[in-house]
Amino acid sequence: MNRNDREKEFLNELVPDEENSIVKYPYKKKLPLVLLLDTSSSMQGQSIDELNDGLVNLIEDIKNDEKTNKMVEICVVSFGGTVYVHKENYFVLAEDFKPKKMIANGNTPMGLAIDKGLELISQRKKFLRENGINLSCPWMIALTDGYPTDMRKGGEKWIRRKKALENAENGNHCLCWVFGTTNADYESLKDLYPKGRVLSMINDNFNNVFEFVSVSISTRQIQNASDYNLKMELD
Amino acid sequence: MIFEYNEENKTRNKDKSININHYNLKNNIKVLTGKAKSATGTKINKPFQDALEWKIIRQGKAEILIAALADGAGSAKKSHEGASLAVQNFINYVDRKIKTKMKQKYLPFFINKPNKLSYLFWDRNLIKNAFENCYKKISIEASASSNDISEYNTTLVGLLAIREHEGESVLFCGSIGDSVSIVMRREDSFTKKVFIKGNKIDHNTNIEGMKTNLIKVEQFLEITKGEYSNETVFLTFKDWEKYYAEGIIQNLLGVILASDGLNNIYFKQMQKLVNNSNKYTWIVEPNEEILLKLFHFFLKQEINNKIFSDVLKKDKIMNFNNDDKSLLLAIF
What we know:
The structure holds two protein chains of two kinds. By secondary structure, chain A is α/β, with parallel strands linked by helices.
């Protein structure tokens, strides 16, 4: 047996089968990104179109970026009338993302969407960490044009979710952002979300949000919001 | 999991034994090493971030192996220097101390009484002192070159293994960070283990049966790192002692040291929930089947350092983990 044959034999004997990998590109760390998208009836018209287009652009940006295309796992959850986890886009890489046009309908169950988003992140983290896949701190991003209609500000559910978001941030469980259009209720959102995580879209352009997200993840540095026509809503 | 190595088709079957007597384990300590720079590191001409060195001291028919492996942090500018300093200083320190001990009268007595673990605590702090020495040397180098010590961030796993003239062995090992130590021992054999973490000592003795021909491959020291991939802990931390883990084990067949560039290939670093809590701890699950094949190829003298390193450089391996890779396999 010559040297090349021997190396080939060792390569077959001493390397596991790639097909057995639990996720694609297991050598790349994974960053779970949960998108909570407001598809309530008030989003009808231009807003829902821009949201759909913006999401496609985000996926393209992630797919075309070498630093993120094997790392970011996208999970789409929409909330309009009900909270819906898009099974076809359950923690998928950008290359496997299946675009599905969202339709605006119903009220804004944002509280339930937050519960679901945090639960999904916990599940994904557990799955990855128990299967030996390196992790980056997950992101959970909510986009809305209004305010939650499934809980009352200051009520029991509100306080519970506010605490859950605070614990997620302080415990380094995930970064919890909310982005709103100019019509959003910022007083409520600022009360609910951790400080510095509420941003408004100056031109109501969802693309700006998605660009901010993709560049921040790619560079591993939170970008300056104003460079993306976003404004940080602070007290 | 236990495997049988079938000479005919070179495959292994679960739940059968490997016949250790096929191999010549009677002569001396045998060491195989492999190193490979990541594909990205090669492409951008980045220095190799790992350091791996070993040496053997002979005392009559007994042998002492000193080995160390360090993995420099990818984000730190001089981490390759940190890794190199850690490894060199570990080996030099332990070597020096052992040679001093060898000149003392009672050492032959210790060497000839390998079965009593208490005798092996002849210098319980030797490995930890070696780590402290490494930390100091790196600090001095950082100060001398006006750099912050974090620029030298590196993990370290270091060992001292003794093979008695009758073949009995004992391993002392210390570690900080996510470099891996794995031991190979006879299943159900008489083994004694002691783990030290901070001030806590955990004794673990297995006296269930006589020696058999079964080989078990298992994680030795726990690895220490945070939840996320950028949260590794390093020897170069001011509070490094907090993360230091140490263990002693008797009666083993072999030991493996490896950098985390071999994660997902020869082992999996996983987080598991600690019993009755919501806290996670890192564990290492060795790929027993493949590591036993490596054990076999090496003992049959079919693979050497050059061939093994060349295998580690292949795309198929890099597709699993595109990080610098180092591995040492020592068989006693």
